[in-house]
Amino acid sequence: CVTVDAQAACRDAAVTQELLKEGFHRDLLVKVELGVVGEDAGGCTVAARTHLPPGIYVDPYELASLQQHNLTKVVLIPDVIDVEAPEYLATDLLVLLYMEPDPRCSRCFRAALPVHGRYHRPAEDSQEASVVLKSPEVLVCCCDNRLSTECWKPAEVEAPCSGRNAGPCQWYSITHRPAYEESILQVPVGLRHHSSLVCVVTLLTTVLCSSLILAAVCKYGHFS
């Protein structure tokens, strides 16, 4: 469980959100810097809650592998995700990303999460679609301590405070100053006037590959 000072958590936090890499497969990096860390620390957990729009998703199979190796800790709502759905058939996703302390800064926390862009409808004249990702909400949970929460705002989060707790506990939202109000993911899209060419090339490729497979079966196959 991440340890922070309760009074520090009540003060404004600075939040930075970055999308690393290019193309469809990216890494979402979130950094949180609390105001001041005092000497009277309590056992609290810091997390970032963010809404992913339909144009971005998290692969639950990839996430399960990362969590199995203790590389990240995330709660997804809903936990069932159609990774094949295009952007116009997908829904929003709520992500609760648990933060880890940054060894280079006593009041800093960070976490990274692999995210993926969904396919969009072909566009008329642009080869990229913009997906807007809002700044996350910073949450703190102090399940094992009776700390003053007069400057915190209760948050409705059905998630455990840490890996040691089996059941959910009370989370609180803290005020923060985002470095940027939003991040923009540019996703490559096709052009509508290329549709005929794409269909013809796809059909020819399918016929060619099917012919090669059929020829190989006839030549090397064993028929009774």
From TrEMBL:
Primary location group: endoplasmic reticulum
InterPro entries tied to this protein: PIG-X/PBN1 (IPR013233), PIGX (IPR040039)
SMART domains on file: PIG-X
Record's subcellular location: Endoplasmic reticulum membrane
Any one Gene Ontology cellular component term annotated for this protein: endoplasmic reticulum membrane
Example of a GO biological process term: GPI anchor biosynthetic process
Membrane topology according to the record: Single-pass membrane protein
Pathway participation: Glycolipid biosynthesis; glycosylphosphatidylinositol-anchor biosynthesis
Pfam families: PIG-X
Transmembrane segments: 195-218
Record keywords: Endoplasmic reticulum, Glycoprotein, GPI-anchor biosynthesis, Membrane, Transmembrane, Transmembrane helix
Family named by the database record: Belongs to the PIGX family.
Function: Stabilizing subunit of the glycosylphosphatidylinositol-mannosyltransferase I complex which catalyzes the transfer of the first mannose, via an alpha-1,4 bond from a dolichol-phosphate-mannose (Dol-P-Man) to the glucosaminyl acyl phosphatidylinositol (GlcN-(acyl)PI) intermediate to generate alpha-D-Man-(1->4)-alpha-D-GlcN-(1->6)-(1-radyl,2-acyl-sn-glycero-3-phospho)-2-acyl-inositol and participates in the sixth step of the glycosylphosphatidylinositol-anchor biosynthesis. Probably acts by stabilizing the mannosyltransferase PIGM.
Identification of the protein by name: Phosphatidylinositol-glycan biosynthesis class X protein
Organism: Nyctibius grandis (Great potoo)
Gene: Pigx
